[in-house]
Amino acid sequence: MAERERLLAALKRILKERGWRYADLAAALGLSEPTIKRMLSNGRIGLDRLEQICEALDIDFFELARSARGNRDARRHLSLAQETALAAEPRLMTVFHLLCQGWQTAAIGADYGLRKPELVKLLARLDALRLIELLPGDRTRLRVARDFSWRDDGPVRARYFQLASREFLNHGFDGGDAFFALEIRELSEASAATLRRKLDKLVAEFKEAADLDIGLPPERRRSVGMLAASRPWVFSLVESLREAEPAADKPRRR
């Protein structure tokens, strides 16, 4: 991640920690909310504007830089016990996923046909796992960061990721809102490392777009899947060339 992107990520984190909305920052700077959203999504912020933002938040630039450096390589995970519980109970996993996407409990019950006793039971289970805080009126507050990552060798990946990947790829990708591309090329280690950084950036931008839209009501959003993958790989069709023995060289069977 480039230094500018780290600063932006740290700035968004500070805004979230202080409970500032984009509208609050826009009002403090005398700008429109769409302008703030564009600045924080495309990263086109000059030094003067960045200093104004820091002043509005009552921090100095060096504090922002330290925050960016301190979280450079941090990956937030749920505890192993939390992941294990979610992996064991698909309905619990689904409700937690929807809450992380900004759904309200009433909307989950209505849209997915969950009766209130069952929904409350699932919410209480998530509360006991310290994944959410169950508030009066069945409202909830997340107790974990929205940008957490599943453990690479954890129980959620072990149970769901292979299934989800197969289901995701079992599609024609022929709609106007679908995109699929498979390219096989030979790259140097340096080019492969550059590609990995760009994929990391794309995933980060995907998550940031979701964060920007999380305040919209569910009917104005739709679930979108993005699978980003790259690994050393030789297609079996190509590898079969090594196994094909020319007919003239084959020993005669007696």
TrEMBL record:
Transmembrane segments: none
PROSITE patterns in the record: HTH_CROC1
Pfam families: HTH_26
GO molecular function: DNA binding
Coiled coil feature spans: 185-212
Signal peptide bounds: none
Top-level taxon: Bacteria
Domain HTH cro/C1-type: 11-64
Entry annotated with the keyword Coiled coil: yes
Swiss-Prot/TrEMBL keywords: Coiled coil
The name this protein goes by in its record: Transcriptional regulator, XRE family
Species of provenance: Lysobacter enzymogenes
Lineage: Bacteria, Pseudomonadati, Pseudomonadota, Gammaproteobacteria, Lysobacterales
